Amino acid sequence: MTIMWVAPTDEEIAELLRKAKTVAIVGASDNPERPVYGVSQWLLDNSHFDLFFVNPRLQTLFGHKVYPSIADIPEWVDIVDVFRNVADIPTVLDESIAVKAKSMWLQLGLKDDVSANRAVKNGLQVVQNRCIKIDYNSLLLKN
Asked: What pTM was computed for the model?
């Protein structure tokens, strides 16, 4: 039997968000014009997550240390939130599998079914083409 990615329901996403404690923001940016900047700032202010920012070109962001890779994060990661090009997703997935992350979240506009299927086969829950800020706000805060 082949394991295939299936889009999670809103209830499954709400449960994932509720249970998660740590989120790695891969592709973190200090540019306020980038969506990742606003999402990161909003999550810092409004979520229960411990955020870990990942970008090899930055040292700090919002007063927090920025890590060069997921492997450099000193804690276990529940959600790897990806703000990178679709072409970078397989590499981010490799890192996510290596650190035994629970899930990989591909932000709005990002979808890679091949990587999603590989992630599921390796035990990761996958959310594609959704915004963690929008879902957190609508599924956890608005209820």
From this structure: 0.96
